[in-house]
Each structure stands twice: as C-alpha cells, then as structure tokens.
Design goal:
By secondary structure, this protein is of the alpha/beta class. It has nine helices and seven strands; from the N terminus they run βαβαβαβαβααβαααβ. It has a seven-stranded parallel beta sheet, sandwiched between helices. Strand 1, helix 1 and strand 2 form a beta-alpha-beta unit. The longest helix has 26 residues. The protein is globular and about 45 Å long. The mean pLDDT is 92.
C-alpha cells in the first residue's frame, strides 16, 4: 500500500532529471503517472522504469509553451486515466549564460512561455479535476534569490511561478486544492552542460551548502514532492519547500 494509491499524477518534463525523479517517487507510492514531455524517447524510458517498478504510466508529447497543445494533452490524459489528482509543473526551457542586456525577445519569452505561462495553462486545464482534494506542485529555482549572472530571463520566469503559486493557493484553497512549490538543487542535463563551461563553479556552490552535494532527483526531490501530494500535507498551501542542502541560507 502506498500513500498515493488510486491517485493520478501528471508530471511535466518527466522524461529526465527532476521530473523523472518525481514521477518515479510518486509511482513507488502507488500513483498512476502521466508523463508529459517533448521527447518521445526519454518519455518512453520513464514509462519503462515505472512499469519495472510494477507501476502504471503513460506518456503524452506536448509543447508546453502552446496553450492549445496543453489543453489537448490534459483532455487526452483524463480520457485515458479518468482524472488528474496531482499536477507537477516541472518542465521549463531557458537560454542561460547570456548577459541580460544581450537577451533578445525570443530568448526572454521562451522562459516565460515554458515556465509561468505553461504552469498556468496546465493549472487551468486541470482545475475541474483537481477540485475537492487535488494538489499542484510548481518548480521554482534557487536562482531567484541568488540572481546568478546570465540567468536573468530564467530568474524572472521562476519568480513569476512563485507569484502564481501564492495566488492560486489563496484562490483555490476553498476549492479543496493545495498549491505549493519546490526549490531543488539538482543538476538537470542543461545545468550540467552550463556548469561544464564554468570550471570550479560547482565546487564553489558546494562550499556554500550545509550539505555539500546535489539532490538525488528521486530520493530527495521526489520524496519531497510525495510529501506535498500526500495525506500529511493537506493543511499546507502557498508554501515553498527548499530541497537544496541549505542553499537558501546564502541567498
């Protein structure tokens, strides 16, 4: 018996990294997982990993920066799995490593379209199914407080996700929906590539952490998401949980 038995979780960007870790952790607790990603190969890999655990999963390909595709994706998932009880907005695209004055319109808008806009579109599409006990978990970033050089558009987009989370928590609490956020310190493939271009940067980050390592995407971040989606967090809403080894201390 898992604490998410009978639940359906929709996780965006679950083909790899943090999204995959959250999907696996929730599957271990009994949730059926709807994986939303733009990469069919990695999405299918996550499905196989969940099935190997004895869980149930399916995937849908979706451009999360397109509201029509988001609506169609949620409709398809509900047709297949009957509902959505847990929504995890993890997917994001961003152009980083660019000084703010050199960021063009397209690069700036990419972060917003795939971040707060996509999160809102999924929340709006899932709302009728979430009412009466559902849960939304949005992914934020420690870069909001650190304001890392070259991350201007990404920082602004993630800060907007924070505002959206608080607004939805205020409005949707009486609809029986909790809305919270996670801030993980975990390395996605894109983050690893960016750090590879900055020798010594990762070691410098570790020196500032209370627990000098990156999060395990399933055991650390995934389990935190399970907590927020589970029965022990039904009176928690509008909060941001940092899973970052103490990174919030030096913000």
């Amino acid at each position: 018996m898992g604490i998410l038995d009978g639940k359906v979780a929709l996780v965006t960007g679950a083909g790899q990294g943090v999204g995959r870790g959250i999907a696996l952790a929730m599957a271990r607790e009994g949730a059926a997982i709807a994986i939303v990603d733009r990469n069919a190969e990695t999405a299918a890999e996550t499905v196989v990993l969940i099935e190997d655990l004895g869980g149930m999963a399916l995937y849908r390909i979706c451009d999360v920066s397109n509201s029509d595709e988001v609506n169609a994706c949620v409709t398809s998932i509900v047709e297949a799995l009957s509902t959505v009880d847990i929504l995890v907005n993890n997917a994001v695209d961003a152009r980083v490593g660019i000084p703010l004055q050199d960021v063009n319109d397209e690069e700036f808008l990419i972060s917003f379209a795939s971040g707060p806009f996509a999160s809102f579109w999924f929340m709006r599409a899932c709302f009728p199914h979430l009412r009466g006990g559902g849960c939304v978990i949005n992914l934020r970033s420690g870069t909001e407080n650190q304001s890392m050089v070259g991350y201007g558009a990404y920082v602004a987009a993630k800060a907007a996700v924070g505002g959206l989370t608080r607004a939805a928590a205020r409005e949707w609490g009486r609809e029986g929906i909790t809305v919270n956020a996670l801030v993980p310190f975990a390395l996605s493939p894109s983050a690893e590539a960016d750090l590879a271009r900055q020798p010594g940067r990762l070691d410098a980050l570790y020196r500032q952490l209370s627990i000098p390592r990156t999060a395990d995407v399933e055991a650390d971040v995934g389990r935190a998401a399970v907590f927020l989606a589970g029965p022990d967090a039904t009176f928690i809403t509008g909060c941001t949980l940092s899973v970052d080894g103490g990174g919030s201390f030096f913000a």
